[in-house]
């Protein structure tokens, strides 16, 4: 999706995928799918992070079943990255979805179809995830640049409780599966079944379109919600962060 954003440079290389922006927010400056030879890991890491360090940008490096070597995280820590967390990659057979916890009767879930609602979606997303207010316009720019659904198979959903936005999710269709992203509920609206409902709605839409597998990456808070919907864990995804303000240029922590 980053190839559609005017503020991003996407580098799809044989040994890794990188996104580089001028926005000082780690999620926008990510390294994924790194596959390095064991005898060249240190040099490859230094080369990969050089463009970010030149701009003094934070970096989010993702590890998982598609990265190598298997202990890549250890090398990253030696290069100043800080381990953030592991999260399970989960999947579900869409024919076997369950309803989860019942949602409030006053909850209304709708697709985001125009910019005013997209701005509400972005704001709810930022508050829910605890992200800085400073990225609000950049997040809106990112998603508004993606264009219409027929260009990029991405659909956002917003949940309103008594008319007020309280939850978000996104559905991305690709590689024959339905990916669920950006699931968050505002703190004051949690533990009411809203998270399950905002996840279930796009999955049902995908099933109606003929998709049979749903996938997502779960937070600690979301694992029990997704398990009740029928999801099962299949892999582990690691997150490592480099931040110039808290990490030295030299060795590990």
Question: What secondary-structure arrangement, pairings included, does this model have?
Answer:
Blueprint: E1 8-13, E2 16-21, E3 30-32, H1 41-54, E4 59-63, H2 72-78, E5 82-93, E6 107-111, H3 115-129, H4 136-144, E7 154-161, E8 164-174, E9 177-185, H5 194-208, E10 213-217, H6 223-229, E11 232-242
Parallel strand pairs: 3-4, 9-10
Antiparallel strand pairs: 1-2, 2-3, 4-11, 5-10, 5-11, 6-7, 7-8, 8-9
Helix pairs in contact: 3-4
Protein model, in words:
By secondary structure, this protein is of the alpha+beta class. It is 26% helix and 32% strand. The chain contains 6 helices and 11 strands. It has helices at residues 41-54, 72-78, 115-129, 136-144, 194-208, 223-229; strands at 8-13, 16-21, 30-32, 59-63, 82-93, 107-111, 154-161, 164-174, 177-185, 213-217, 232-242. It has an 11-stranded mixed β-sheet with strand order 1-2-3-4-11-5-10-9-8-7-6, with helices on both faces. Helix 1 links the parallel strand 3 and strand 4. Helix 3 (115-129) packs across helix 4 (136-144). The radius of gyration is 19 Å and the shape is globular. The model is unreliable at 247-253 (pLDDT under 50).
């Amino acid at each position: 999706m980053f190839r559609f954003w005017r503020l991003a440079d996407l580098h799809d290389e044989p040994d890794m995928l990188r996104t580089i922006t001028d926005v000082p927010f780690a999620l926008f400056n990510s390294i994924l799918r790194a596959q390095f030879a064991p005898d060249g890991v240190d040099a490859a890491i230094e080369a990969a992070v050089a463009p970010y360090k030149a701009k003094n940008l934070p970096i989010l490096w993702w590890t998982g079943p598609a990265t190598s070597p298997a202990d890549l995280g250890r090398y990253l820590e030696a290069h100043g990255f800080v381990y953030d967390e592991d999260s399970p990659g989960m999947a579900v057979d869409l024919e076997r979805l369950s309803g989860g916890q019942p949602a409030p009767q006053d909850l209304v879930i709708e697709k985001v179809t125009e910019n005013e609602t997209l701005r509400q979606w972005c704001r709810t997303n930022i508050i829910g995830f605890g992200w800085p207010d400073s990225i609000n316009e950049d997040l809106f720019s990112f998603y508004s640049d993606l264009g219409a659904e027929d260009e990029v198979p991405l659909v956002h959903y917003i949940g309103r409780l008594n008319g007020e936005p309280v939850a978000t999710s996104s559905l991305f269709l690709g590689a024959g599966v339905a990916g669920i992203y950006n699931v968050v509920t505002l703190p004051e609206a949690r533990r009411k079944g809203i998270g399950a409902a905002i996840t279930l709605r796009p999955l049902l839409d995908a099933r109606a379109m003929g998709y049979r597998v749903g996938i997502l990456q779960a937070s600690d808070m979301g694992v029990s919600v997704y398990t009740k919907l029928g999801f099962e864990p299949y892999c582990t995804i690691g997150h490592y962060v480099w931040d110039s303000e808290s990490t030295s240029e030299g060795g590990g922590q």
